[in-house]
Amino acid sequence: MDVENTVVEILADLTGNDDIKDDMDMELFESGTLDSMATVQMLLELQGQLDIEVPVSEFDREAWSTPNKIIARVKELQ
Amino acid sequence: MPNLQPYANPNYFLILGAALIPLVIGLLNGKRWHVYETLVSLLFLILIFDGDKVHQGIALIGYVLFEGALIWGYTVYRQKHNNTWLFDLAVILAIMPLVIVKFVPFLNPGSNSILGFLGISYLTFKSVGMIMETRDGSIKKFEPWLFLQFMLFFPTISSGPIDRYRRFKKDYLKVPDRDHYLDLLGKAVHNFMLGFVYKFMLGYLFGTVLLPKVAHLAMASRGGFLDISWGLVGYMYVYSMYLFFDFAGYSLFAVATSYVMGVETPINFNKPFASTNIKEFWNRWHMTLSFWFRDYIYMRLVFFLMKHKITKNKVLIANLGYLTLFLLMGFWHGLTWYYIVYGLFHAIWIILTDVWLRFKKKHKDHIISNRWTNYLAIFATFNTVCLSFLIFSGFLDRLWFH
Question: pTM score > 0.90 for this model?
Fold first, then answer.
């Protein structure tokens, strides 16, 4: 599976919100869709499924605030 | 030289204004004069820590040398190895001065540790943050000059907002482009004016004019159940307003001064009393502190617990995180029963809020949610926050035990 689909699947799983697929620029933190707990789960899932290391220090909310931005960051880190 | 506490009186602002003018001219012309900047910083540090505060100044110098040596040592070590125990040791050593400063008055009431100085709590956040980011490999080398500038950045030294090393460094090393800098100057002027209204008008009204009156009233009407009286209710609201306007006012000054210096120190308050629940409140109140605890304590603890599969129960993990975060925040404020109870109060409140949010998500078709329930949520959150600030104020200690 490619990065896009994997990230969307992870997000949909964690938030129980399938609308993410239709709104890739959704502000995940502002809208309360993703909280700190879900964020950590996401980082661990990314680590497990895409084999990238994201230490908490590298997690800057600004740079990870929408599905599209997350995909961009993941590709950078790969 | 006179002793001037940060943002406390007109003289401070006059000297501040005069000292910053050359910097503004420089930045408007695309130049950042680091030497002049450093002299200005030194001048204000001396003004804060001279006269009868000189012992604090010496403690500050000792503190910065100690933390600098520690972080330097850890960075050199981390370039080759990455042992968890050594990392833990570095963090423990980094918080040791603060721990001692908090314990001395607890063990020996009425006395203060010679290690203490105004701002030690805030500098400790910066040091510990640097050690954690060094461990993560995000900070790769120790830069003594930038470390000193970061730690001793005078606009925020006494009470924050708490900046982060890599963010600060980026601003400090560049000159903002002219349009952006003009925008920052506009915001700075706005912040200074709003800060004056907050700190010197509203903060003064609530803290200096009204607070002693309601305190007196509450003390005079003791005797009922838990000594509750209208005076105490008044104290709760007046103190909460004072706390907000005084601290938000200070934070506006600190952010404004940073902006003038071309450093975009993060804001500390964003309409906290408009929050619809306590989770939102902590995203809007003393933001740099709560974000520090979120990023360096909560997320790291949750990460650790989940990665090592200590338990599969996600709710339990989140709740352990909340308890740790807010208890630590309580202890950080000081070793008194009311700070600890304040921490516990918020931990339990946020745990219950999560229970409610999960319930709401599951039954969202059956729960009314409209403009009015929103107002009700804001009202309930505001009042509960004020109750927590009454605990925080320490007034109950006076009321019940003295």
Answer: yes
